[in-house]
Specification:
The protein is mainly β. The protein folds into 3 domains: 39 residues, no CATH class; 168 residues, Jelly Rolls (Sandwich); 79 residues, Immunoglobulin-like, CATH 2.60.40.2550. It contains no helices and 28 strands. Strands 6, 8, 11, 14, 17, 18 and 20 form a 7-stranded antiparallel beta sheet that branches. Strands 7, 12, 13, 15, 16 and 19 form a 6-stranded antiparallel beta sheet that branches. Strands 1-2-5-21 form a 4-stranded antiparallel beta sheet, with no helix packed on it.
Length: 307
């Protein structure tokens, strides 16, 4: 199959079609079907783009002697304890949260704690991270959950991965299903097992808690809309008039009588209502052509004849 995700700000709709094969090995594409699902706002979302840090409801705690606790940054250029230089850019937006290693040797035991979150359904925590994995200098980079704000359970550790650096490579996904019915806080906790400074810096961004199982289904009976052309037959210029009841993308294709695509136009976002598309067919040879217009209301098409 192949699909087209619509250019919506919440990415909740798109189109899909299927490649069909019968018992005689005849093949063809199916019609397009509208794919849709309910967009559910994240239960919690933080990208550290606000003017204040920590963000409202968040808490930062740590050792009093270090000045390198959790904070927000733009691009960070730093040299780690191995004298390796890094440029760390926020993966989303302009800011990221980070705790930098204290090269002055002060003890670090740094916490970034979320506001209280009610987990009412099966949910997943996702975040992006730039971190030293499996630190051989006894740094611990942990994600923890608490239901009372005092007792914490580790649900993720950078030590569990092969040695290396996670350079915002992919989202971390952590199930919160065990906490359904609970009010929880989540902490990003960095410290050294020997009570010294950290030896590497840790960056996190784009934190979300989402409900899972949000896909609703596929609309297999789209409402067909009508389109018409004028003039038809035409000499050089013709137009296609159509109406759609929902906003979204539109796709126009024109094929010659032997199946070659001679014209294609994509409209990333059309408003609901009436529209007209002007087609310049001056370069086409005389003959019959077939057009196909696809919107979220369905697919419509017909014949064109260039004189």
């Amino acid at each position: 199959y192949e699909g087209i995700v619509a250019g919506q700000t919440d990415h909740t709709q798109g189109e899909i079609r299927f490649w069909l094969t019968d018992e005689l090995n005849n093949t063809a594409w199916s019609d397009y079907y509208t794919l849709y699902w309910d967009w559910i706002k994240p239960i919690m979302e933080e990208g550290f783009e606000g003017e204040a840090f920590p963000p409202e409801g968040w808490t930062v705690t740590g050792e009093p002697l270090t000045w390198l606790s959790w904070n927000d940054y733009g691009m960070v250029y730093y040299t780690d304890s191995d004298e390796v230089d890094w440029e760390v850019f926020p993966p989303e937006g302009q800011r990221q949260a980070a705790v930098e290693w204290d090269f002055q040797g002060n003890e670090q035991n740094e916490w970034l704690i979320s506001p209280e979150v009610s987990v009412t359904v099966n949910s997943v925590l996702t975040f992006k991270t730039f971190v030293r994995l499996r630190s051989y200098d006894y740094d611990e980079y942990l994600v923890k959950v608490s239901t009372d704000g005092f007792n914490w359970q580790t649900i993720w550790s950078a030590f569990d991965y092969p040695a290396g650096v996670s350079s915002y490579d992919e989202d971390v996904h952590l199930s919160l299903n065990d906490y359904v019915g609970e009010d929880i806080r989540i902490a990003w906790h960095a410290y050294n097992l020997y009570g010294t400074n950290l030896w590497y810096s840790w960056f996190v961004d784009d934190i979300k808690i989402r409900a899972v199982d949000t896909i609703v289904g596929v609309n297999q009976t789209p409402e067909i809309f009508n389109s018409k052309t004028f003039p038809n037959p035409f000499i050089t210029i013709t137009s296609i008039d159509f109406q759609t009841s929902v906003a979204g993308p539109a796709f126009l294709s024109v094929f010659s009588s032997d199946g070659r695509k001679v014209y294609e136009q994509t409209f990333p976002q059309l408003s609901a209502g009436s529209h007209q598309i002007i087609i310049d067919g001056n370069a086409w040879p005389s003959g019959f052509y077939f057009y196909q217009m696809r919107t979220r209301n369905g697919t419509s098409g017909g014949k064109l004849f260039r004189q």
